């Protein structure tokens, strides 16, 4: 028993854990555990090559599909970007126009307010005279255009049709 204990102790003295850890990748652990593996057959290699080739073909087909989809998305994003730039330019122009119109309306409202505060009948007479002259001019121009148009019997009729487009928009057409 003492000899066996001495041998075990000497084995422990020779045992270096660092050396064993460093060599762990040099030994095929699976082979050491289960024994020698059965030799590979040629059909296994052919099957593996065939399956790799099929996977490569599928990957290539999917890559081509992804490339086409990326191209379509690129075209869509470029179109959207173009539309956004055009819309922003239009909105900027409309904003400037609305600012100009707002200034004109503010000036007109100031003049109307001043006219209403003066209590003078002179301004009201001017306004009524302007409206009467405007109606006579419209009547005269209508008669002249009817005579110049010829063959209508001296009268022309202008009809307006209103068509509701929804969302507060109305289309006006003349007949």
In brief:
By secondary structure, the chain is mainly alpha-helical.
Write the layout of secondary structure elements.
Blueprint lengths: L1 H13 L2 H6 L6 H6 L7 H76 L3 H29 L10 E7 L2 E6 L1
Antiparallel strand pairs: 1-2
Q: Determine the N-to-C terminus distance.
A: 126 Å
Q: Major beta sheet, specifics?
A: 2 strands, antiparallel
Biggest sheet: strand arrangement: 1-2
Q: What fraction of residues sit in β-strands?
A: 5-15%
Percent of residues in helical segments?
over 70%
DSSP strand tally? 2
* Uncertain parts: 152-158
**Spatial extent as radius of gyration:** 48 Å
Helical stretch count?
5
Global shape: elongated
Structural class: mainly alpha
Q: Mean of residue pLDDT?
A: 76
Topology order in helix (H) and strand (E) letters: HHHHHEE
Determine the oligomeric state from the structure: single chain
Highlighted features:
175 residues, mainly alpha, 5 helices, 74% helix, elongated
Structure description:
Helix content is 74%, strand content 7%. With 175 residues, the protein is mainly α. The chain has a two-stranded antiparallel ribbon. Strand 1 (160-166) and strand 2 (169-174) form a beta hairpin. The radius of gyration is 48 Å and the shape is elongated. Residues 152-158 have low confidence and may be disordered.
